[in-house]
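re: ur question from earlier - yeah i can do the single chain one, its not a big deal. heres the input i used so u can compare w yours
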Amino acid sequence: ARAQALGGALGGVADDGLAAAYNPAGLGFLGRIELDAGRQALFAGLDYDYAVLSVPVLSWTDEPRAAADRGVTALSVYSLGATGIPRRGLVETDSPTGTFSAADRAYALSYGLALSPDLAVGATLKYVDEQLDAAHAGAVTGDAGALFKRGDWSLGAGLRDAFGRVRLGSGADPLPAVAYAGAGWRPRRGWLLTAELDQPRYDAAALGFGAERRWTVAKGLAASARAGFRTDRMDAGWTGGVAAGFGVDWRALSADLSWSPGCSLGDVFQYSVRARF
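and the output i got, formated as tokens:
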């Protein structure tokens, strides 16, 4: 939800467990076990659910060194599905002949390693599983990224879904590979500005921008407000590209909500929670 509220521009920041999805190099800077989970309510009964468990390799040992010194691993599950889709045959009828379901899922293993206090690299190996009624297909793909942090700035770049083709029926289609480059800037305490350029393999480039303001409300309690914009959501006008959200942090727990307009398809809300151990 935080990334959606920031216009999807998180590849140049990647400062939490969801780095596994946006830039796996960011995992290399995590020092604690983290569990992230969320849901996105879409149009026409579509639901997108995800969960990511990030674990520094040395978390389970007694070695007298930082938990992330040997890198950080993450296990992720993503699921997009719909049920109750009307089934119709080749002859037009007044009523459907039944219903069917569709689901896209991905299972991923990520690893990030900080090569220095400023530079980290990371990679993800994913298995994508697609099901449409009785048809079923699978493919292997991967992500790779690098993240550089210096002072109030951070820069990130990499590839998402870099390879792989999925065959559902008679034809095989490539997965939606995207090259990205992003940046983050903290101009003053409590502020974060983000930007990202995404270049899909078979589509026009897209720009995302975001701003986050964080306040300390009380000891152990903080709140954040966010706003963002993304150029590839402007099919129905510039208002389709906006996004907004907020978050609450209490000690090691966080909850976030984001909103973006879906125009005639209805608004899109995403909810996420995080726990650090």
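The mean pLDDT is 92. not sure if urs matches, ping me
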